[in-house]
Amino acid sequence: MSEERLMKLLLSPHVSEKSTRIADKNRQFVFKVVPDATKPEIKQAVELMFKVEVEGVQVVNVAGKRKRFGRMAGRRPDWKKAYVRLKPGHDIDFVGGQ
Fold first, then answer.
1. d(Cα 86, Cα 17) in Å, to the nearest integer?
2. Residue ranges per structural domain of the chain
């Protein structure tokens, strides 16, 4: 896989109460990824970008919610998120503190 593809694979970290709890308890981090990403690609992308070792990857397809704007019915887009578990001794610091 090309390094350019791997750099575009991870869209953003997904920060929520659940993802923070999972990060503290299980060394898992949650990322929003492109819809056609595969587990091996996600693993390589995280290892390349954050210089850590990945133990495993779980992927979830999230269905977009239906929303109403007055009379107009709309729908948010579907997206994909990846739960990335790191090997013991590795950590990702998004804040950048010491």
1. 19
2. 3-86
